[in-house]
Design brief:
The protein is α+β, with helices and mostly antiparallel strands. It has 8 helices and 4 strands.
Length: 306
């Protein structure tokens, strides 16, 4: 006997925050344009690296927005969960782009270490300060939303990295003004490349967890098992599966063995109501499927999972 609770899919985590992402996209593209012009005028590799990083961030936000639109398409007989996984695939593409950008920046910086060219620090400094201020505004826009979506979190982490990158460029410009050592520009480029990699790795790891249908972070399977066993009439529980379709859409299923007497008239309804209420209130899992099995039938069940 199966029971489905809360069939509505609604907006995904990214879909809820499209306006925030659009605002960040506009801000980021504007700063990218300013920084590219500034890098060409000043000759700063660090500023160009920061612009390239921000351009990749803009591409990531655009992909997230596109994916959120695709994910909102209704489910069908061929795709029973709709296109909600599109957001996860977009986050995967975003992580891979970040890795490529960091490798390109790192390679060019190593090449320039031998002979650091002269840069115009006034232009470099002005563009970097503008970038830092824009990144700070974007961080404030995404601060609360980043907890609800992998893609929004990816955008937030990228903007945070951009802010650190802009601060590195500012520090390099000030250092050059004080010492006249242009190698600081190349060193800042290396720092920006190294800032990108850890963020890309964390995002990639989260995406892989979703694609491998790992248990969502913060969910204690043993505690869930204990709560289910505490429901009156429940004898045992097996084949517990908890995974994530996309950000903000956790899914739970389990086979629950119940005393035969508890499955009498309206007994199954009472057990199911208690189970769904328990999962929804204690573990914020609204999409639950339970297969109720009478204890007398348990010997016929082939357990696929503990």
């Amino acid at each position: 006997m199966g029971h489905e609770h809360s069939h509505a899919h609604g907006l995904t985590g990214t879909g809820k925050h499209r306006k925030r992402l659009i605002a960040v996209l506009v801000i980021t593209l504007a700063v990218v344009l300013v920084q590219i012009v500034g890098a060409l005028v000043s000759g700063s590799l660090a500023l160009l690296a920061d612009a390239g990083h921000m351009l990749s961030d803009a591409a990531g936000v655009f992909i997230a927005l596109l994916a959120s639109w695709i994910a909102a398409r209704p489910a069908s007989d061929q795709r029973t969960y709709g296109y909600q996984r599109a957001e996860v695939l977009a986050a995967l593409a975003n992580a891979l782009v970040l890795i490529v950008i960091s490798v390109v920046i790192f390679t060019e910086a190593i090449r320039r270490l031998a002979s650091a060219p002269e840069v115009q620090t006034d232009v470099m400094l002005a563009a970097a300060v503008l970038g830092a201020l824009a990144n700070l505004v974007s961080l404030l826009i995404l601060r609360t939303a980043q907890k609800e979506s992998l893609n929004v979190r990816g955008a937030y982490l990228e903007v945070l990295g951009d802010l650190l990158g802009s601060l590195a460029v500012i520090a390099a410009a000030v250092f050059i003004l004080v010492t006249g050592l242009y190698v600081a520009d190349t060193v800042a480029s290396l720092a920006i490349a190294l800032l990108i990699l850890p963020r890309a790795w964390h995002l990639l790891r989260d995406v892989v967890d979703v694609l491998l249908e790992a248990t969502p972070k913060g969910v204690d399977v043993q505690m869930i098992r204990a709560h289910i066993l505490a429901v009156e009439g429940v004898v045992s529980v097996h084949d517990i599966h908890i995974w994530t379709i996309t950000s903000g859409v956790p899914v739970f299923s389990a086979h629950v063995v119940v005393e035969d007497a508890a499955l009498g008239a309206r007994g199954a309804d009472r057990v199911l109501d208690k189970l769904t209420s328990c999962l929804g209130s204690h573990f914020d899992t609204g999409h639950c499927t339970f297969q109720l099995e009478p204890a007398s039938h348990s010997a016929h069940e082939a357990h696929q999972h503990a």
